[in-house]
Amino acid sequence: MLNRRRLLAFGVTALGGGAVLRFLGDTPTALSGIGHQGHHGGHVPQPSAGTVGATHVTFTPFTERMPVPPVLRPSRTTGGVDTYTLPIRAAEVDIIPGLRTPALTYGGQFVGPTIRARAGRPVKVAFVNELDQLTNVHLHGGHVSAANDGHPMDLIAPGATRVYDYPNTQRGATLWYHDHTHGLEADHVYRGLHGFYLIHDKAEKRLNLPSGKYDVPIMLRNAQFDEKGALVFGHPDNRTTVLANGKAQPYFPVAARKYRFRLLNASLKHVFRLNMGGVPMTKIASDGGLLPAPVSREELVISSGERVEIVVDFSGRLDDSPLYLYEGENPILRFDVSAAHGRDRSSVPAELVPLPALGAATVERQVSMSFDMSARPPVGLVNGRPFDPDRVDLQVKQGATEIWEIVNADVTPIPFDHPFHMHLVQFQVLSRDGGPPLPEDAGLKDTVYLPPRGTVRIQMTFRTPYTGRYMYHCHYLEHSALGMMAQMEIVP
């Protein structure tokens, strides 16, 4: 559980109601279809200076290029297994133009290096803990054994090395790796312990989607900084600086052709509503990989932990004014279109990859998420109980197909929203609040958003060779840090 020392590490110095709300955040956010606002219809605000969080620091936006996280190269390849070595270390990084920011990093980079894996080809990653504190690593969306899942209590001591085995026996998908140290996961991820892990498969390759340098992962998250550029862990509503691959309001040069963008919301607590000023975005994938068919969207809604893949066609826009990716009406990334080099041979076919058959469910369960606000500090609950690493909350048979009803049971005077995340397997959303799923619910998911008092029904099959304990929890990491987690045990 979260003790006073760990609560102080988050910057909460009092245990009264005001401090509680500053830590948890008290502004619910709605998905499209629930308080839908729509995009701004093409208006392009271009501020003369960017602002940073709740400080007085200003900078000229769109003067720095958005980096693409470098692809990590194997340190060794033997017997069909690629082995990587990645240090976890403190470093100073460039986020705000002209300022240096102390951070926790994988390999010295604020967005850690990308690991590109192939389905069916195993990977080993040796993480070397060069910090002066405990840490661990969770492969979010990965189908891995319990010993390699990054359980919140399975930690890497300072100075130690931990090798994680990732078999990659799953569909091609955009995954990510991040810290999952119980009680400190929010602080560690906020300060930079996050990176992409991309799995490619043969079915995806046959589709001829944009690839190579035209396949670009983009990590979106928000933050607050002080006047010197240091990260401030304060109220979530004060994290008003949006970062794209670790840069505040950068630009990104693109050729006049199609690009595949893999969008990840790595914020601790935030729901992005993204648009390109009326320019269509072709959605092709969700958390667990490609959709059955592409869908044209003018707005994307992505909650913490979720991923969405889109294709944007910049051809024919060479002479237009720059294009922007907006959050609402706030431009967060500028695209500068230049002449294409060579013919664009990529395509987006009308059919992508079918979803696996659901099968017949033999077990139904209800899982609720809520807070006990009478406790000091407040306690996160799953089915009325806080996380206990020594307690198994439910058992699941290998191969079983189950339906879970996920309920946001917070009925406090200031109700909270919660994104639900399941380890080990992906699921499909069957319904939302008794009606059909929203467009954001399509495809294979491992994270789904619940607004205050919301309910979703999900179905999944535990086709896995693994047994052991796995987590399910709220993916607002400040909430999981306060105990809004539970664990299931997979049994033969």
Automatic annotation (TrEMBL):
Residues 96-203, 236-315, 370-490 form the Plastocyanin-like domain. InterPro entries: Cu-oxidase-like_N, Cu-oxidase_2nd, Cu-oxidase_C, Cu-oxidase_fam, Cu_oxidase_Cu_BS, Cupredoxin. Keywords: Metal-binding, Oxidoreductase. Gene3D superfamilies: Cupredoxins - blue copper proteins (2.60.40.420). Pfam families: Cu-oxidase, Cu-oxidase_2, Cu-oxidase_3. PANTHER family: BILIRUBIN OXIDASE, CUPREDOXIN SUPERFAMILY PROTEIN. Belongs to the multicopper oxidase family. This is FtsP/CotA-like multicopper oxidase with cupredoxin domain. It comes from Streptosporangium brasiliense.
